[in-house]
């Protein structure tokens, strides 16, 4: 094989996809973070379901009327989304920290193609993992709720939408985190920014006047996720799919900025 041919293969998009896949599956932190994501999401969801089942006899009548077994069995997403988001950040910042990103850019002339390859491979991984943990959380939660509390099935109204949609929400949010990693370039800084946007910002918004708080809150990723997890419509929020579309728009915007940063500065 000639040097020119080898270089063409490295720079082909399929070659880049193969390279990114090797990077993701060969790094220990990736496997560890995926395990943490599964444990946090399924484990906390199961604990939440167990807690409500054990105390169902003490639950008020008003709360029983509004009880959503689907949302309860997906409660672990609150922390699982953070773990998957951290993985998205590490997909890029780990290469920056080890210096391998410079080697990648030396071998591949188009930084945009490198970014697209990272997005594509990580999107596939994130969707598969997020959907697995979302469905596993649902089934584990319903098993623990069964016999003492109302339960849900995938054939119920909006249940399949909630479970599958929650997986998509986690995956898109993880891609958003990847974009933050590309922009910030430092693991600690990107993780801090991600946590602030997902968990801290909603708390700050509650301190605003109610009318302003409601207007802003409906656009926040945390609210979008909570809406997707529920089978019931939520007040002062977008519909589940509309909210997911807004989150997808945020992610596209963050990647446009990330690509500009990536192509306008040194590796």
From TrEMBL:
Segments passing through the bilayer: 31-54, 74-94, 115-139, 159-184, 191-212, 238-260
Swiss-Prot/TrEMBL keywords: Membrane, Transmembrane, Transmembrane helix
A Pfam family: ABC2_membrane_4
Identification of the protein by name: ABC transporter permease
Biological source species: Ferrimicrobium acidiphilum
Lineage of producing organism: Bacteria, Bacillati, Actinomycetota, Acidimicrobiia, Acidimicrobiales
């Amino acid at each position: 094989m000639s040097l020119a041919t080898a270089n063409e293969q490295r720079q082909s998009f399929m070659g880049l996809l193969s390279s990114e896949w090797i990077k993701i599956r060969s790094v220990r932190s990736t496997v560890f973070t995926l395990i943490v994501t599964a444990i946090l999401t399924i484990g906390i969801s199961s604990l939440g379901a167990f807690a409500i089942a054990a105390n169902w006899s003490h639950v008020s009548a008003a709360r029983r009327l509004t009880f959503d077994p689907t949302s309860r069995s997906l409660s672990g997403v609150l922390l699982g989304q953070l773990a998957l988001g951290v993985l998205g950040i590490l997909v890029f910042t780990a290469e920056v920290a080890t210096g391998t990103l410079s080697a990648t850019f030396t071998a591949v002339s188009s930084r945009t193609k490198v970014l697209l390859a990272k997005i594509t491979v990580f999107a596939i991984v994130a969707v598969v993992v997020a959907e697995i943990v979302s469905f596993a959380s649902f089934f584990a939660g319903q098993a623990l709720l069964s016999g003492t509390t109302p339960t849900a099935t995938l054939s119920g109204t909006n249940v399949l939408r909630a479970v599958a949609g929650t997986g998509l929400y986690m995956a898109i949010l993880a891609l958003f985190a990847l974009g933050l990693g590309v922009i910030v370039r430092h693991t600690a800084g990107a993780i801090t920014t991600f946590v602030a946007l997902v968990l801290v910002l909603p708390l700050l918004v509650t301190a605003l006047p109610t009318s302003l708080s409601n207007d802003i809150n409906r656009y926040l990723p945390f609210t979008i996720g909570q809406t997707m997890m529920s089978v019931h419509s939520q007040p002062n929020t977008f519909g589940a799919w509309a909210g997911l579309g807004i989150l997808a728009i945020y992610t596209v915007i963050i990647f446009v900025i990330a690509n500009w940063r990536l192509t306008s500065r040194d590796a």
